[in-house]
Amino acid sequence: MGNYYQPEIETASREEILRIQNEKIVKQVKHVYDNVEYYRNLMDQKGVKPEDIKSVDDIKKLPFLSKTDLRDAYPYGLLGTDLKNCVRIQSTSGTTGRRVVAFYTQADVDLWEECCARAIVAAGGTNEDVVQVAYGYGLFTGGPGLNGGSHKVGCLTLPMSSGNTERQIQFIQDLSATILCCTPSYAAFIGETMAEKGIKPEENTLKAGIFGAEPWTEEMRQSIQKSLGIKAYDIYGLTETSGPGVSFECEEQTGMHINEDHFYAEIIDPETGEVLPDGSLGELVFTSLDKEAFPLLRYRTRDLCVLTREKCSCGRTHVKMSKPKGRSDDMLIIRGVNVFPSQVETVLLNKGYTPNYQIIVDRVNNTDTMDINVELTPEQFEKHGNDVAPMEKALESAMRTMLGIGPKVHLLAPKSVVRSEGKAVRVIDNRKLV
Ligand code: ADP
Ligand code: ZN
Does CATH place domain 7-329 in 3.40.50.12780? Predict the structure, then answer.
């Protein structure tokens, strides 16, 4: 059994969670219907009235919201309260198109920071910890979210933001940081840079990392845990629902507990919109149960994952989501075959390669091509640098088995692939430019 930030709610019985959700959804649907014209129109079109929603079971009657709705309603169309009640704006990273802006009242900010505080405590954080926040600050939610959560737990907070890796490492050393928060790709880069400086994993004071904001594999976790000498916890969230902290990992590291008292989760078939039973892979949909300023109902995240309700040894009772396999729009369709960058990452790390890779997709003579640039470690480069062909061949064959299509692999000298300080760009799809 671990520690909890809000033990009563984090370990509440299923009945109690359901009771809270049922009570909140009725109020929230009314709040949205009364205040958000855009969604009221969607409900009217579907012939659903607030009175039809009596419990979370009725959520499936409500219309979906998608990223397109958010773009259409930009900037104020989904606002649930008067602007004078709002205290903050954050924005998406714009990874997949036009940015979306989200609004927060003070209560919304508190709720969000509490979710992040739960994640920090689940990673072993207490007021004796020094939390180095190396997510970007600003419009991006990573920095502000973990910063606020760290304050709530009472940790000594280092608001580093991302970048300036030398200084990150110096501050870890000089100020004895114990918990590092950043994207997993940046954590890998910090680990790599430490090794180059001759700092051994056991020589730094870090004990845990809270990494998220982008997809990363189990293999990547193992690699980061080794290079930094820490336990690495996953954290998930999106600007539309508040930011990081919608769900977080506990010490079991087998999926992220969704903060179900604030966010109601569904898994749907992305094609038909039908709600799927627990255990099925599908698109994650969130209904925010409390948010005042940006109260999205049935928001389609496009993230693909599985929900499970098996008992967790940490004592938390909230449903767990698997690591998102990637976004449905991260999925590449190459010669008709579905490919996720995470599959490429798994093969690379299993075969002893670096997580420094990039996938380039193109179309030549009406045929899709897939090239994977992978960096060698300095040791690999020294040993095999003048004859990489056999290694490339072996890797191509392993990729073909995993992906079902045969990419071309290019093994490159160390430092050939650009490092990420925030969300890594894993795919360059040149077909989109045509
Ligand atoms: P953008 O959509 O522009 O990247 P956000 O910064 O709000 O905007 O990012 C939210 C998205 O980041 C999520 O929908 C999800 O695809 C991804 N993400 C966040 N946390 C994780 C995580 N732990 N694992 C995988 N993907 C994640
Ligand atoms: Zn748990």
Answer: yes
